[in-house]
Amino acid sequence: MLRCGSRESYKIIREDLSGNAARLESILLDGLKRIQQKHPERVGHVSARGLVGGMQMVKTGKQPDHDTAHAIIEKCFHKGLLFFAPVGAWGQTVKIAPPLTIPAEALNEGLSVLSEAVSEVLKTDPEPAKTQQETSRRLASD
């Protein structure tokens, strides 16, 4: 087992995967900030460290908005982009964590899909998004 772990560690070093993450951090953060600038009333804090980023969704008054975060993740899923379930103390944050091997072009494409999904969710549903329970029921019936 130790050899297997050593082999993977060697791959990270050999392919400079941590360097790739560091180089792409600015692309990820800039993309998240562009989305935030389009929707400043609904996108709270954005951050990125390497290739791990987060986009906090908020309601008017800056209250955490789990339902909108979930709706964005669902919309991205239907567009072919996969995310973790919303994270954060109230589940209001869309977590972005692409593979360390991702090229810049693919990261930009993913950010474009995310931006499109955010715009669609916020434009088509100005009221709070459907609850997670309603969404789960709809997915189960599909």
Largest sheet, in brief, is: 3 strands, antiparallel
Morphology call: elongated
Please give the radius of gyration in angstroms: 17 Å
CATH topology value: Aspartate Aminotransferase, domain 1
Beta fraction: 5-15%
Fourth-tier CATH superfamily name: Aspartate Aminotransferase, domain 1
Helix count, DSSP H or I runs of 4 or more residues: 5
Distance between the termini: 41 Å
Mean pLDDT: 86
Strand order of the largest sheet: 1-2-3
- The structure class reads mainly alpha
Helix content: 55-70%
CATH secondary-structure class: Alpha Beta
CATH-scheme architecture: Alpha-Beta Complex
Q: What's the number of structural domains?
A: 1
What can you tell me about this protein's structure?
The protein has 5 helices and 3 strands. It has 142 residues and is mainly alpha-helical. It has a single domain (2-141), classed as Aspartate Aminotransferase, domain 1 (Alpha-Beta Complex). The protein has a 3-stranded antiparallel β-sheet with strand order 1-2-3. Strand 1 (43-49) and strand 2 (52-57) form a beta hairpin. Helix 2 packs parallel to helix 4. The longest helix has 22 residues, at 17-38.
